Amino acid sequence: MDGTSAYIAVNNGYEWGNEKGIIGKLDLNALTYGNEIDLGPDGKNPDNLVKVGSFLYLVNNKDWSGASISKVALDGSSNSTVNIATASTGCGTSALRDDKLVYQISMETTLNEFDINVMNNVGPVSGHSLNYYELAQEPISGNLYASETDFFSFGKVHVFDASNNELSNFNAGISPGTIVFDVRSTSVNLNELASNITVYPNPTTDFLNVNSKGMKQVLDLNGKVLISSDLNNIDVSSLNSGIYFLEVEGKKVSFVKR
């Protein structure tokens, strides 16, 4: 998601011999689809897509004989792909973790890091020795959640801190293949959240874009005003990591500062 646009990875991943590597754009206001970007022969079969700033990053399984990572500008002005392995990354075993993509080659137990800033492999991550099914970073604490399964008898999720120490683990349903986080505050009535106010990117690290005119206030969870601005592009780089609220004309919407 980027504002009122949704970017969609098209892969034909299980139509053997006809894998595609295409990024399509869906206008959520007009519900029109178009502006496809072809990732090229090494960018076929994208399995995971994440947005960082003004770029999309994709982990691709190619024709299942290799793996690559693509970087695509949201405006379509640039498009590059780097090959990372001669074996596929499998089903969903990759995630954005801070400014790096972490991924695992199918059937292996080594967790690898890829630096998206320089588009190059960093190397294996210590502290990991399991074959994972899904990876996801929790946006508030930064902890990494990693699931494992044999696809028929068990599912378990492991939680790691930034130093890759395992903090805890818990049993989940068989094949826990998707991990998402609800980071809304329970201290605020959710009816106060205004669906007609859009803020992006969310989470953010520096600037918060708002689609509504008028004076805006950034508040902490206790209601203290931290920033006041009439701009639609608010600098929040001075805030500590955590959950905050943006208030516009008495209406509130939450956002996360990394």
Care to describe what's here?
The protein contains no helices and 22 strands. With 258 residues, it is mostly beta strands. The chain folds into two domains: 5-125, 6 Propeller (Neuraminidase); 190-257, Sandwich (Immunoglobulin-like). The strands form six sheets. A four-stranded antiparallel sheet has the order 4-5-6-7, with no helix packed on it. Strand 18 (216-219) and strand 19 (225-229) form a beta hairpin.
Please tally the helical runs, counting DSSP H or I stretches of 4 or more residues: 0
Q: Low-confidence runs (pLDDT<50, min 5 residues)?
A: none
How much is the average pLDDT? 89
Question: In terms of structural class, how would the helical and strand content be classed?
Answer: mainly beta
How much helical structure, as a percent, in the residues? under 10%
- Main beta sheet strand tally, sense and closure: 4 strands, antiparallel
Name given to the CATH homologous superfamily of the largest domain: Kelch-type beta propeller
Count the beta strands: 22
End-to-end Cα distance, whole Å, is: 18 Å
% residues in beta strands: over 45%
CATH topology of the largest domain: Neuraminidase
Order the strands across the largest sheet as they lie in space: 4-5-6-7
